[in-house]
Amino acid sequence: MSSISPNSTFVRPATLADATPIATLQTRCIHETLVSELQSPISPATYANLAVPAFIRTWEDTLKNLASDHLVLVALGNNEIQGLLSAAPTDPLSLPENHPAFRSTQSVTHAFEITALEIAAQHLEKGHDARLLAALTDLLLAPLDANACLELYLWVFPSSIFLIQTLNQVGFAPCGIQRTFTIEGKTITQHLWWTSLQSTPSSVS
Fold first, then answer.
1. Which pLDDT value is given to residue 97?
2. 51, 46, 62, 61: which is closest to 27 by C-alpha?
3. At what angle do helices 19-38 and 52-64 cross, to 10 degrees?
4. Pairwise CA distance, residues 133 & 34, whole Å
């Protein structure tokens, strides 16, 4: 019987046992992103909101009660979790008729928001983000009827250079919508990226 090499990289669904490494990874990534966006260290008060034990409890609850149409995937390398993706169904994005990418929301049969896509900083160049996105796409397209339309949405910070490069390579694009947050007296912005995928007879099981 063949076994998985400890040096191999692969993607699998998350399990309850992954709650602690997922929480550790996510809090570290959020911390790094905030420092990058704010261009300064975060305050102790903000840092306190990133307490790993609280994130562990949240992920334990999430993984224990994961809805059938929600997905949580992890990317592994060297027998450790190095990447995370979670996605949940959402309403199709409504665009004004004068938007360059306008289409009727009735033409979109399925829409999902990628609610988390985190890769450990030291593993950014290993292709985990593309691997996670490919796995998500395969899982979501597989049960769809032929010619169904699937849209994926993801909020992205401008400082997420590696992620933006990957998104460009796999067919995502910014849709011109943004949202802002005020953290420690500074305004930071996220841009909404999206992609539209069409199922084909060969992709339907």
1. 76
2. 51
3. 130
4. 23
Closest CA to 155 of 30, 11, 27, 28: 30
pLDDT in tens, 163-187: 999 999 999 999 989 999 999 999 9
22 in Cβ contact with 74 (< 8 Å): yes
Find all residues with CB under 8 Å of 171, minimum gap 6, and list them.
195, 197
Q: Report the candidate in 119, 131, 126 with the shortest Cα–Cα distance to residue 156.
A: 119
What is the pTM for the complete model shown? 0.90
Q: Are 68 and 32 in contact, with CB atoms under 8 Å apart?
A: no
Q: In what order do the strands lie in the sheet with 80-89?
A: 9-13, 71-77, 80-89, 110-119, 149-156, 186-198, 173-183
Q: What is the pLDDT of residues 131-158, one digit of tens each?
A: 999 999 999 999 888 878 899 999 999 9
**H/E run at residue 186:** strand 186-198
Name every residue whose Cβ is closer than 8 Å to that of residue 157 and which is 6 or more positions away in sequence: 33, 36, 37, 188, 189, 190
Number of Cα atoms under 13 Å in the Cβ half of residue 128:
26
Q: Other C-beta atoms within 10 Å of 88: how many?
A: 15
**Residues 49-54, mean pLDDT to the nearest whole number:** 96
pLDDT at 199: 78
